[in-house]
Amino acid sequence: MTGNKRQESIPVHHLTSSSFLVFTIENTNDETFNGLHRHDFFELIWFTKSDTNESVEIDFTPHRFNDNEICLLTPGQVFQMEKSKQQGFVLAFAKDLFHELTGNRSFFTDVGRPISLGQDSLNAIQSLLPLIINEYNGQKRIALLKSYLQAFLFHVLTTVDALHEAGDSRLNKLFQLIDTHFLQQRETAFYAGHLNTSAKYLNSILKRERSVTIKELVSQRLVLEAKREIYFGELTLKEIAFKLGFSDPAYFSRFFKVQTGKSAEHFKASIQRLHL
């Protein structure tokens, strides 16, 4: 895994010659985690021992992880973790491999949130990981390694699915729709129509399960994309506004400030100060 830069202030971590890597947190150099950076691959971090005094920053939001909780990062996310007392394992997957193993599912609502495993799933991944490491460091039989990885991810993602199933099954479909269409579609009626339900009913489920409305969820996704674009530094604020579907850059600026409490210019300046 390497860190490259499209611009001086934009580190991007890549997988190099392998479609999969596994290593421990404690035996990895600090550059792997320190400093805001982004990935072009999927990364799963299993904290076997965490330090709740330290936060993990994902897409500019701090998260705290407890022992035996898992963090799932997707390509394009901005990430930073200061190493201190954390212990655990990191599994990095090239995009094609991860999609093959997981069936091209969407992770918009799961990324960044601590995944707490039940005891059965925890026992399973504790048994599977030594098999993965031994095969990875040994004969590297691809079919066998993929079967271990698929089983490992199954137990992790089963926990995520159980959280969704505790509410209404349509929510996960809604999250996938928003992740696919948020740039073009912002109206509640579009998403309700695709799920064959009324906007009122769908909003009532969201309010109960996530304390948000469809409109608020779409706005959150737009703000996340705006923050990433600002951080990547390749476009002006005016260009970002147009890319996100705002015909008026001034309206985009007002929208960003209402959603985040700070102007896009202020957010951009704060990012630039991090790299002075």
From TrEMBL:
Keyword Transcription belongs to the record: yes
Q: Where is the signal peptide?
A: none
InterPro entries given for it? Homeodomain-like_sf, HTH_AraC
Gene3D superfamilies linked: Homeodomain-like (1.10.10.60)
Q: Give start-end ranges for the coiled-coil region(s).
A: none
- Ranges for domain HTH araC/xylS-type come to 172-270
Matching SUPFAM superfamilies: Homeodomain-like
Q: Does the keyword Transmembrane helix apply?
A: no
Molecular function (Gene Ontology), one example:
sequence-specific DNA binding
Keyword set, alphabetical order: DNA-binding, Transcription, Transcription regulation
Q: Which Pfam families match?
A: HTH_18
PANTHER family per the record? ARAC-FAMILY TRANSCRIPTIONAL REGULATOR, TRANSCRIPTIONAL REGULATORY PROTEIN
For this entry, the protein name equals AraC-type DNA-binding protein
